[in-house]
Specification:
By secondary structure, this protein is α/β, with parallel strands linked by helices. The protein has 12 helices and 12 strands. The longest helix has 30 residues.
């Protein structure tokens, strides 16, 4: 069985399992014994609430960084799905009280936490936590919430919303009136608790046993730093070129201060890893202060953005903007170490010539590879004879190969989101198959 077939089968399995776990609570409403005297709209609102709560609980599995779950799809798709399905879960849960208020106006009094029964109080608090979770996630940057505090509160609010939602179901009691129905919700609660134990206890303990030591920190062009790491007391980490890992520095793995960064080193040398990081926020501005032999921790590898997933391609095309060169550099270095001579094209956009990260090494790689590099500068120096401006459809068309057969050319795109959106649309419009386009988006939240 081929690798692509296994990915397809595993991908189908996880989708089927997700649908089963999401829909299972709805069968509770259909199976006898059912509580008597319950109107259709009340039961319908309960069904929406059940489905939404199941979806919400399953988000912990989606974001638990389980490699077997992420492998068939890649992190971009998983996090995009997490965002969209969370909004759907929120809409379903919010519809539950709204329908009750419309069909039974007297239930609005349950919002009064001083006089409402406990099951209503718990439900209102759970919904409040969920609303706060959604607002701070969608408008984090507008609210000027930095990443690390947001991540801590995101976890706390999500935990509170799910735990209080489960307590609300138990206290209401209408659909936990038999041992097997109660067992279903107990299974959800146990599954959710075990996930929390794995993420918060077991996984950090495993990372503590496999630390890395800083070997050196290299200053690159464009306010960028490369951190070179070596395994400390273990054999290291094997990864596919283009993948990434979560880095924890200055703290233990039990903290919430980890950040995702792409490998820039060759996958042929797992004994020496490199992460290339641009100064953007508080954490990335501290990277240059890492000291030799300082211990850090890596959780990975993750991601499906890799040439190794498409070994039969006749050639590879890389389109990068700014720090988006990082995972592509890992792929180029790996291809050079393997002696691969398939045709390669790199179209690399930057603001100025001095900000072109890995400029000298890209030039040095060309004799080792069948590589054409096209630099595109939006603010070129005087006398610049290369491409200037932005990565427009017209510019791409001048360099892209005429062979657009499905599976022939695999195209890897990484850079600022607006650039990626333009490039993806242009490539599809020019006749490249959408399945041959692979994107890595750094801004996932």
């Amino acid at each position: 069985m081929g690798v692509s077939t296994r990915r397809f089968l595993w991908g189908g399995f996880w989708i089927a399992l997700y649908l089963l776990l999401t829909l299972a609570p709805l069968f509770v409403l259909l199976v006898e014994p059912r509580p008597p005297g319950r109107a259709f709209w009340r039961e319908f609102s309960v069904a929406l609430g059940f489905a939404g709560l199941a979806m919400l609980a399953l988000q912990f599995a989606i974001t638990a960084r389980l490699k077997s779950v992420k492998a068939p799809y890649g992190s971009d798709i998983i996090y995009y799905f997490h965002r969209q399905i969370s909004l759907m879960a929120f809409a379903l849960i919010l519809a539950h009280p709204i329908i009750l208020f419309i069909t039974s106006p007297g239930t609005i009094g349950l919002l009064n936490l001083l006089n409402a029964p406990w099951q209503a109080r718990v439900g209102v608090i759970a919904l409040t936590c969920l609303i706060a979770l959604v607002v701070t996630s969608l408008w984090r940057k507008l609210l000027k919430i930095s990443y690390t505090p947001w991540r801590v509160w995101h976890g706390l609010l999500a935990t509170a919303a799910v735990s209080l939602g489960l307590i609300h179901v138990v206290l209401v009691g209408y659909h936990v009136n038999t041992p097997w129905k109660a067992g279903l919700w107990a299974s959800y609660a146990m599954f959710w608790v075990l996930l929390l134990v794995y993420v918060r206890v077991i996984k950090p303990l495993l990372l503590l046993r496999h630390p890395y030591a800083v070997e050196q920190v290299i200053e690159e062009r464009g306010d960028v730093w490369t951190v070179v790491l070596r395994p400390d007391g273990h054999t290291g980490m094997k990864f596919l070129p283009g993948q990434f890992a979560w880095l924890t520095a200055w703290h233990s793995p039990f903290s919430d201060t980890e950040h995702p960064f792409s490998f820039s080193s060759s996958a042929a040398h797992s004994e020496r890893l490199a992460l290339t990081i641009k100064e953007f926020g508080d954490f990335t501005r501290m990277i240059k202060h890492l000291q030799p032999d300082q211990q850090v921790y890596l959780d990975g590898p993750f991601g499906a953005f890799s040439i190794d997933r498409y070994p039969r391609a006749r050639g590879y095309i890389f389109i990068a903007g700014g720090i988006g060169i990082t995972p592509i550099m890992s792929m180029l270095r790996t291809l050079a170490d393997r002696g691969d001579q398939r045709p390669l094209l790199l179209i690399y956009g930057n603001k100025s010539w001095d900000q072109v990260t890995f400029r000298e090494e890209l030039a040095a790689l060309q004799p080792r590879l069948n590589l054409q590099v096209v630099h595109v500068l939006s603010d070129p120096p005087e006398g610049w004879e290369g491409e200037q401006g932005y990565l427009t459809p017209e510019l791409l068309a001048r360099y892209l190969p005429t062979d657009k057969a499905r599976g022939s050319q695999q195209i890897f795109i990484c850079g600022p989101p607006p650039m990626m959106d333009i490039v993806e649309r242009a490539l599809v419009h020019q006749g490249f198959h959408i399945g041959d386009l692979h994107s890595e988006r750094f801004d996932l939240v």
